[in-house]
Amino acid sequence: GGLETALVCHYRIAVPSAKLGVPEVKLGLLPGAGGTQRLPRLVGVEAAATMCSLGEPVSASKALSMGLIDRVAGEGSLAEDAIAYAQELIAVGPRATRELPVKGDVGIIDQLKAANARKWKGFEAPYANLACVEAATKLPFDEGMKFERSEFMKLMGGSQSAAQRHMFFAERQAAKIDGLPKDLPLRAVNKVGVIGAGTMGGGISMNFLAKGIPVTIVEMVQENLDRGVGVIRKNYEASAAKGRFTTEQVEGMMALLTPSLSLDSLADCDLVIEAVYENMEVKKEVFGKLDAICKPGAILASNTSYLNVDEIAASTARPQDVVGMHFFSPANVMKLLEVVRGEKTAPDVLATAMAVGKKIGKVAVVAGVCDGFIGNRMLSKRQQPAMQLLLEGATPAQIDKVHTDFGMPMGPFQMSDLAGLDIGWHRDPTRVDTIRDALCAAGRFGQKNGKG
Fold this sequence. Notes:
Distance between the termini: 49 Å
Number of strands: 12
Mean pLDDT: 95
Shape: globular
Helix content: 40-55%
Largest sheet: 8 strands, mixed
Strand order of the largest sheet: 7-6-5-8-9-10-11-12
Strand content: 5-15%
Oligomer: single chain
């Protein structure tokens, strides 16, 4: 609403730190106060269509270069600069945005649809935003405003916008933790240890390296350690090939990574995240060792997806320092981080784990100690009927297709294949009660070993 109000004005001046955008598409809406009609007249069809359909803001300097604003004020002198600019403009005269001609090629709209087809699959709002921008190129201003209003009302009354608005507020609500004071001092996290260099351990490490936080990654076998470090580098180089990082940034992140074969190298870490496979005895053994190695006040976190965090904490003499930090696979991509509060987890440990999640770009949510926490308890309700359909003769591809056609990014079997079929497996090849047991007994663990 703020930018649209400014668009009604004839000229605009902004502070250097200003960010300008129309983010309504992220709530399943469109800028319904004339945003889709005034933007194309001010910045052209390409910039307007991009801003409306993606909802990303632009900086003040970019806004100036594209004509969205007319002047950038000095740091701390907005009022004086604005008054001086207004006095200059008296001689220039009015310039109503609505009266400007629409500039640019409408062909960009089809290009945006093609480039974002996968991302926008099933979503109504991006296409409604583009339809309104296109209307600005064909209709007089007042008719375009009527078209925008009609499209806005359709979106506002629909179920998608209701869901996206719920998500918006739910994510913010999740960051507020009951019973914790806002001014609670946090523990410093300047160095992180990760135990396990497999799919999860490597992905978890990448989150911290990307934010400039040094990571010591520990494996028991040199071959596994080398493979894990190699996968991290390969992933970063693939991102660099797509323009997300420079070669220098990749080398900078890799330089922050210290591979090790000894848990003793975690002695100076502020936060240690255990990402070994899902077996209670193994995890308890690891935490017992960490208890003896890690410095006082270090946070000991388990990436368990199902196991009892209180039982893990009981294997140490410092259960107050133990917390669950369950990342979802692939850990360097997925936004959700479940922070599991144990019975004895200290308030500052919980608050620090939540703050760490925010720092590395995750949506951190507090969970209690229960089977599967939040995400996996929901996913199990999807997985059970999917397995029943498999037994009735449907193929994994058919079952997954129903989910992706509905709008989910992937189906239950593709998800299992990506995360690892052996997650939570009892690891006894002679005990085969399910299809998954049979696959794991045959050494078919999914993408991690190329057999799914």
